[in-house]
């Protein structure tokens, strides 16, 4: 029988760990090559595993551990009290784990710096409590067709920098209250007029795409001025064209990098904004 230790003082009380959690954790460990010291994940010997007072696994943080394999959604879904999952900087492969039923507690996921290849449709629909997800430095040649992402009403941060994303810019992100970080991928296509208008988006990072032929394009003055909560915008090394946006009314804006595009016109920024416009030879001249 698996047990969990409550507290660290002399005379501490033990309670049984959930049998389902123990079996699920053992299956996960086997599938990703995790050398664990016992069969009881809540006995204090599984480094990076936290449990609650009733013996349910609540957090898994195992980074830089040389793990390799496929993370099974059926096993992960059995950890119904899990709120935090961090398996970054390992060697996980395949698609992201698709949970069979909605998970009511999983809020934070960090699977960055692995070798994951795609997100299956329905992945986000099974995560109604999700607040932050990091997928940076993976091999996701295809990422989108994930309209169910907008069902994650609590989502605040989506990061997939340098994840080999090769697809069109996901304009549906403008309908989600999150911080999209999608820099250094291979995306192309136009950012639509009104993207992120009156949204809660504070950080927009789509700069440095590694696409030699097609780039992310669009007119900045048709969407940036209406992103009323924007704090930082990183739009460098892209294909944006036309006049610089008048963002004097964006009182929260602190960083604006639109270097190496095809912009023109005179800068109009509120005082205190750090502006980078190198590589736009027509800036300072009428369009």
TrEMBL record:
UniProt entry tagged with the keyword Membrane: yes
Record keywords, A-Z: Glycoprotein, Leucine-rich repeat, Membrane, Receptor, Repeat, Signal, Transmembrane, Transmembrane helix
Domain of life: Eukaryota
Compartment(s) where it occurs, according to its Swiss-Prot or TrEMBL record: Membrane
GO cellular-component term (any): membrane
Pfam families linked to this entry: LRR_1
Record keyword Transmembrane helix present: yes
Residues making up the signal peptide according to the UniProt record: 1-17
Membrane topology field: Single-pass membrane protein
Protein name from the UniProt record: Leucine-rich repeat-containing N-terminal plant-type domain-containing protein
Phylogenetic lineage: Eukaryota, Viridiplantae, Streptophyta, Embryophyta, Tracheophyta
